[in-house]
Design brief:
Helix content: 25-40%
Shape: elongated
CATH superfamily of the largest domain: Zn peptidases
Mean pLDDT: 96
Strand content: 15-25%
Largest sheet: 6 strands, mixed
Number of strands: 18
CATH topology of the largest domain: Aminopeptidase
CATH class of the largest domain: Alpha Beta
Strand order of the largest sheet: 1-2-6-3-7-16
CATH architecture of the largest domain: 3-Layer(aba) Sandwich
Number of domains: 2
Low-confidence stretches: none
Distance between the termini: 28 Å
Radius of gyration: 24 Å
Length: 392
């Protein structure tokens, strides 16, 4: 029997099991910063993948963040491995949001779209190919427990840089848009905290001795926001300001939070250097400032190999009778950036389709769970065709 038809038949006859796995993973609490819950979720995923033959290991990334889960199926198989990546942590919305199917037939629940559906797809692709006897290449998984906080205070980026190299390609199983698409580029972040120190004084009786940190901040804001370069996909904006102590006191301190987004790594370096320079200069004698970079998700820069991988998957989708996938760039970050920086061709947003991530209205299309499983399973068994496209 043709392997393509076997995959199709397998997905059709195992829909209830695939859906049940999705439900089970969503219903494991894993809100970012909840260390105990994240450990528990990671351990359950370990058990799940070990049950289908993966050799799995946990990597601790910090005392507060969820571990990195890494596993290999068929380490002794020939050829470069195929990597599936993503994250199992979710945003910390208040209350419980269990998995359910609503009256419109949409899946709901915290993380159902972003991105536990992608983990369920990965598991069932690997389980299915085991059952069908496919063993042509090694398969790896790499799921993070602190992606939603940009790996702040974490060694995750450093660990990914060691584990990702050597893979033939990476399918980052992040949430997909409602319209069929594949992400080949993402903006990175330059989240900055600038703290300005002035000289506190009574604003009535000791005005001249005071040096206002808030006034110094006001001088710096135009310089900071002038770093925006729309043509290069770079935006910089001051998003939060806190300053002063009392109504009748010259403000001795002011803190600004700055959201920077870049499409190119070179722009990230430019922004960081400029922030340091702005902090080092002062407009009001006696005021000083320092910066710290709070989070780091590097840009996922489009390249020819990423586009070829996206085109390969889109071609397969069309051959199977599904819609073609448009190659797109999106604004938010993901760990596809870290994998791509390790020299691995990568595509992102190939998990379940839906919308409203990070809100109580998050939902995903149930049919996309089965469609993406079928499309990516076919991509795996035909991955030599992609290897030929990039000269491997």
């Amino acid at each position: 029997m043709d392997l393509c038809k076997e995959i199709h038949d397998y997905v059709q006859t195992h829909q209830n099991e695939i859906l049940a796995t999705w439900r089970d993973i969503v219903d494991i609490p894993s809100k970012v910063n909840q260390k105990e819950d994240l450990e528990n979720c990671c351990n359950k995923l370990m058990t799940l993948f070990e049950g289908i033959g993966f050799k799995v290991e946990k990597h601790e990334v910090s005392e507060t963040n969820g571990p990195l889960l890494f596993g290999t199926l068929g380490a002794d198989r020939p050829g470069k491995p195929i990597l599936f990546s993503g994250h199992y942590d979710t945003v910390p919305l208040p209350g419980d949001h269990p998995f359910r199917i609503d009256e419109q037939g949409h899946a709901r629940g915290l993380g159902c779209h972003d991105m536990k559906g992608g983990i369920a797809i990965t598991y069932h692709i690997c389980r299915m190919l085991n059952d069908l006897g496919w063993a042509e290449r090694p398969v790896r998984i790499m799921f993070l427990g602190d992606e939603e906080k940009g790996h702040s205070g974490s060694r995750a980026g450093e660990i990914m840089a060691k584990l990702a190299p050597g893979a033939l390609c990476d399918f980052n199983m992040e949430s997909a848009t409602l319209e069929p698409s594949i992400t080949v580029g993402r903006r990175g972040d330059v989240m900055t905290k600038m703290t300005i120190h002035g000289v506190g004084a009574h604003s009535g009786s000791d005005f001249l001795r005071g040096r206002s940190a808030v006034s110094e901040a006001a001088h710096k804001i135009p310089l900071i926001e002038a770093l925006t370069d729309i043509d290069k996909g770079t935006t910089v904006i001051v998003t939060k300001i806190e300053g002063g102590t009392m109504l009748n006191s010259v403000p001795p301190i002011c803190t600004m939070m700055i959201d920077g987004r870049t499409t190119l790594m070179s722009e990230r370096h430019r922004i960081m250097a400029a922030m340091e320079e702005i902090a080092a200069s002062s407009f009001i004698d006696g005021c000083t400032a320092e910066v710290s970079f709070e989070e780091y998700m590097p840009p996922f820069e489009p390249n020819d190999d990423n586009r070829k991988l996206a085109a390969f998957v889109s071609d397969i989708a069309e051959e199977l009778g599904f819609a073609a996938r448009e190659a797109v760039r999106v604004g938010g970050g993901s760990d596809a950036s870290h994998v791509a920086m390790a020299g691995v061709p990568a595509i992102c947003s190939v998990g379940v389709r839906g919308q409203f991530n990070h809100t109580e209205n998050e939902y995903a299309l149930v049919d996309s769970l089965f469609e993406q499983t079928e499309v990516l399973a076919n991509a795996v068994v035909r991955i030599d065709e992609f290897a030929a496209r990039i000269g491997e």
